[in-house]
Amino acid sequence: MRVGVEGHEVRQELGAGDRVGVRPVGDAEEDDRPRPVSTIGILGAGRVGTALARQALRAGYRVLVAASGEPAAIGLIVEVMASGAVAVHAADAARQADVVVLSVPLRKYATLDPAALAGKVVVDAMNYWPETDGPLPDLEAAPSSSEMVQAFLPGARVVKTLNHIGYHELETHGAPAGAPGRRALAVAGDDEGARAVVGDLVEKLGYDAVDAGPLAAGAALEPGTEIFAGRHDRPALERLLALAAAPATA
Prior knowledge:
Order of helices and strands: EHEHEHEHEHHHEHEHEHH
Mean pLDDT: 88
Strand content: 5-15%
Structural class: alpha/beta
Distance between the termini: 49 Å
Shape: globular
Largest sheet: 8 strands, mixed
Number of helices: 11
Strand order of the largest sheet: 3-2-1-4-5-6-7-8
Low-confidence stretches: 1-24, 26-30
Number of strands: 8
Helix content: 25-40%
């Protein structure tokens, strides 16, 4: 599997189908509920990837971390920064994981292997940073960066989330379900089942998951938006998603 992952990502600061932001993800009928997720594969061993690995380990998941090249190249990083996670080849992370998270620089998206990720629930936690990613011609033709990624990975079930929370906040802003003011994260994707799977993951990581509807709604989560720039509980996030989806008035 070809995965263009560097040892460290660029800094990602935060600083998805029907209605927007009106119900928690996963509120489907019981027989439609997703199968439990036990293994998370993370492509990227930098600050975002290792912070996510630590939080996923706390939530009880088996965590596989991959980068470009041999696992030995990131073995020490994973051991020190995410003790309990396992450094593996990218192909093994894609094959074994129930959910694969992309936490590599967006400019590397075209080095991912579409065949290896076909059929997988893939979380796009990447953001576009012009100063470091440079021009991305494919992005000019796509309404959002996640739609660009989905077009490149046609067999994958891409879901946008985890990009609008800082790696340094991921481990500290989480709270138990039902906690007052619990931070919410939006989940956008064209595949309703994939949204439910990822919504459950977000909940277990310590955040309220808000269904944002189709993948195009992920544009409201990108850098430069109010959602990206702030910390929001469920009612506030639902309001912002509704505003973003509302038709523009003259």
